[in-house]
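Section 3.1 - Work completed
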Amino acid sequence: MESRLGRSQSPRVTAVPRHLSRCHCPEAPVFLLCAIHRPGAAGGVAAESSIGTWTDIGLEDKAIWERLHAKVIELDEASGKVVIAYPLDLFEAGNLAQFLSSIAGNIFGLKEITRLRIEDIDFPEIFVKAFPGPALGIEGVRALTGVADRPLLGSIIKPKLGLTSAKHADAAMQVWDNGLDLVKDD
């Protein structure tokens, strides 16, 4: 199987990880490919983005550490590419904001890391299925707007704060009256 470290492409998300057949830790089914350009920092990034500490603070139970810490499963020191595996128990089902704050939160602010880039994330199917998806989907939005044969056009009402409900509604009506389909509420 081709190594993930050799691929060069835009970030993407897949529903079924291809790594499981060769992964050393199948209990950690969320995979993150990132580029860390600092020798020796991969383990610290994995720890900081999972259990939240680089070092022993004396309060952790070893069983908690073993169950919840992320693991570096591939490392290419020459390119700085790292694959980190995260236990699914770290993440609340259906909570993308919590997931992103874990894997892409304060690790970008660590003074020890000067160049860090997330390149790919693979989610297990069970994690993806925890998200209900959009209420209507594109077909439902097209049916609601009556737009089937062209791109949907939208606008954002500004200022995003300070308008009364009536002024916001008036601005939205002007948008719709002038041919746009959607108004996004910031």
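Second construct:
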Amino acid sequence: MFEKIEKYYGKIFVQKALGALTVAKPGLSQLELEDILSCDDELLDDIFQYWVPPLRRFPTSIICRLWRDIGGYLVERGSEGVSVYKWYHRQFQEAAEERFVPKSNKEQLEQRHQALVLGKLLCLTIMLILTERSQNLILRFDEDEKT
């Protein structure tokens, strides 16, 4: 199955996409995969070798097609209010690890996924701080109007 997918989509994309899916312990959403792949210059150079897009971001349509083609081997579940995908069976997980996550590359793939999660947490923290500050400003403005 993996060989067929690699021939259709290209070895670089499949290795990086399914490697990211395989190391993501809680699973991976389509948007998270798009974010991870959009940070990979080698992959983007391969995808955009004949065209320079105005926004250098991995195309969502390719991920949607991949998900459609391998969907029977994935399970969808909720994680923090988002649908994430993971290999359906342990044997798929092990076969994908063996093929797409070489020991020399495993740490790098795990670090990319962790950076994505940390980035989301950082954005959430910033949003909370800004929300708190704007509420304080509104409260101060209301107090000034009363006096």
